Amino acid sequence: MSTPPLASGPEGPGALRPLLDTVLDALRTGSTARGGPLPAGGPEDVARRLRDAAGDILPRHGTDDALRTLVHALAEGSADPADPLCAAHLHCPPLAVATAADLAASVLNPSLDSWDQAPAASELETLVTTTLAAEIYGTTDGTRTATALVTTGGTESNQLAVLLAREAHSAVQLVHGANAHHSLPRAAWLLGLPDPVVVPAPAGTMDPVALDEALTALRGPRGSLLVAATAGTTDAGLIDPLPDLADVCATHGARLHIDAAYGGGLLFSDRHRPALDGLDRAHTVTLDLHKLGWQPIAAGLLAVRDPHDLTALRHQADYLNATDDTEAGLPDLLDRSLRTTRRPDILKIAVTLKTLGRAGLGALVDHVCARATDLADLIASRPGLELHAPPTLSTVLFRPAGATDEAVAAVRRTLLHDGRAVLGRARLDDRLWLKATLLNPHTRPDDLAALLKLVEGHTPR
Ligand SMILES: Cc1ncc(COP(=O)(O)O)c(C=O)c1O
Known about the structure:
Strand content: 5-15%
Cofactor: pyridoxal 5'-phosphate
Number of domains: 3
CATH class of the largest domain: Alpha Beta
Radius of gyration: 24 Å
CATH topology of the largest domain: Aspartate Aminotransferase, domain 2
Bound molecules: pyridoxal-5'-phosphate
InterPro entries: PyrdxlP-dep_de-COase, PyrdxlP-dep_Trfase, PyrdxlP-dep_Trfase_major, PyrdxlP-dep_Trfase_small
Strand order of the largest sheet: 1-7-6-5-4-2-3
CATH superfamily of the largest domain: Type I PLP-dependent aspartate aminotransferase-like (Major domain)
Helix content: 40-55%
Protein name: Aminotransferase class V-fold PLP-dependent enzyme
Order of helices and strands: HHHHHEHEHEHEHEEEHHHEEHEEH
Shape: globular
Largest sheet: 7 strands, mixed
Keywords: Aminotransferase, Decarboxylase, Lyase, Pyridoxal phosphate, Transferase
GO molecular function, one term: aromatic-L-amino-acid decarboxylase activity
Structural class: alpha/beta
Number of helices: 14
């Protein structure tokens, strides 16, 4: 076999073009073979088909059809978030333009751990992260410019937020709502902090009175308490009462982190942005554009109000940021992440922001939120279904009326097994609910009706 061509360099585009044709073809044939939102047959059938297609994955001599075969197999065996009946998770269908930009990121392969590997990408990252941070915190106050770190998603952002709090105050006690994402208590565990104090969230959002009581009981030294609130809960898409929680934190001198991994997308929408009032009062904010931002994974961010907090991440490795290089003007990139080699996820984000603009992104947000309201209305109009509550974001919880929790779980699994629909599950008010998370801006009202019909038709009686 001759030396395989490279993706970059003068020959790169010529070598890539026919391969891209193969990829696009295989994506099409694979999803046609699947014929629905999820491969049918359940885990064993899917695993067998994948293994049959893959064959010997490390043969002595390679084969020319690996690209076509494996892309087809993966597409055939994928959960497709672009299918309107695939609505379980905060798993968005990526925009074509963002995905195209991601191809360029792979071709150019800048690595954001040193300027000499990413001269323009590092500047683009600075530009986009300060722009996004300004969406939350406004523009510079003259002494400091809020910024953001690029992460692999909400989990890494939440971990970094807890780490920055620990470094700012040496010891920190995390306090979060019962509705918080599991990555927050996990971050406390990872960082060797005491077990978090969990504040009740009786109606799905953190109760400010209960937070006040919890902080009073803790009476930590000023600054040693870190409160994590949520703007867009994983289970129900609810937003904590941010201004009230920020007031309570201010009274107790507690640091505030807001996990807006889901709800952060509302920043782009004139209509929905007011629901995020109070976000700017947080020291740190998790954003995640591979949720309500239509990016291919990964596209997480942690916005940081005071850039001085980032001194905690300062680190020296002579081969990447030698002091004399830095003094001579080469930008030091190591305090932007705990990772070393880092892909330029910022490119697809930048391309999306500039292509759609705030209005274009806001329209997508408005659209999926409106579809969620449509779905809730449809559910409410059907006597065989029970709606949990009108949606705040784009998540709708419902269940077949009068069904047991076992029946609710069974209908979800049957639809998954048959590859007919992908719905999530959530336990709220001590009952199990089906969860539809609408992130597909192409979903039509007819699709929603079809989804409900499937649920009604597959509920065990
Ligand atoms: C509120 C919230 N925070 C954090 C996360 C974690 O994000 P990721 O899966 O991108 O790490 C999620 C994931 O669903 C989430 O819903």
